C-alpha cells in the first residue's frame, strides 16, 4: 500500500511558476515509479510527467516539455513538479501517482496503482 499527499497548488499569473510536492508513505519509495497527471473540467485525465525509481530517467508530455521538470528525493520520500512559464491552459487538478510494478507504458494512467487526492492549479491570463 502507498499513500500519497500532495501540496503546492494555487493561483498564479501566466508566465509564473509553481512547485508541486507529493509525499509518499508505505512501500519503499525508491522502488516506486512516479508520475504526474492533470485533469481539467470536461477533459480526460492526461499524462504530464514521469520519473524512474532512481530518478535518472524522466518523461514529459509534449505540451509541458521544456517548461516543467519532475524530480524526486528518495531520502525524503517526495516527488516534485517544478512548473515554469505557466499558461492558462495548464489550469487543472494535478494528481500524483505511484506505479509499484513498473512494467507498463508510464504515460498511461492505467499503469499506476495509487493516486493522490489532487491539488488545484489555476493560471490566470
Structure description:
With 125 residues, the protein is mainly beta. The protein is built from no helices and eleven strands. It has strands spanning 2-7, 10-13, 18-26, 33-39, 46-51, 58-60, 68-73, 78-83, 92-99, 114-115, 119-124. Strands 2, 4, 5, 6, 9, 10 and 11 form a seven-stranded mixed beta sheet that branches. A four-stranded antiparallel beta sheet has the order 1-3-8-7, with no helix packed on it. A hairpin with a 6-residue loop joins strand 4 (33-39) and strand 5. The N and C termini lie far apart (40 Å).
Number of strands: 11
What does the average pLDDT come to?
A: 94
- What is the overall shape? globular
- Biggest β-sheet: count, sense, barrel? 7 strands, mixed
Rg calc = 13 Å
Give me the strand/helix succession: EEEEEEEEEEE
How much helicity do the residues have? under 10%
* Share in β-strands: over 45%
| Count of helix runs | 0
Poorly predicted parts: none
Structural class: mainly beta
**What is the straight-line distance between the termini?**
40 Å
Q: Short description, anyone?
A:
The chain starts with a strand and ends with a strand. By secondary structure, the chain is mostly beta strands. Helix content is 0%, strand content 50%.
Write the layout of secondary structure elements.
Layout: E1 2-7, E2 10-13, E3 18-26, E4 33-39, E5 46-51, E6 58-60, E7 68-73, E8 78-83, E9 92-99, E10 114-115, E11 119-124
Parallel strand pairs: 2-11
Antiparallel strand pairs: 1-3, 3-8, 4-5, 4-9, 5-6, 7-8, 9-10, 9-11
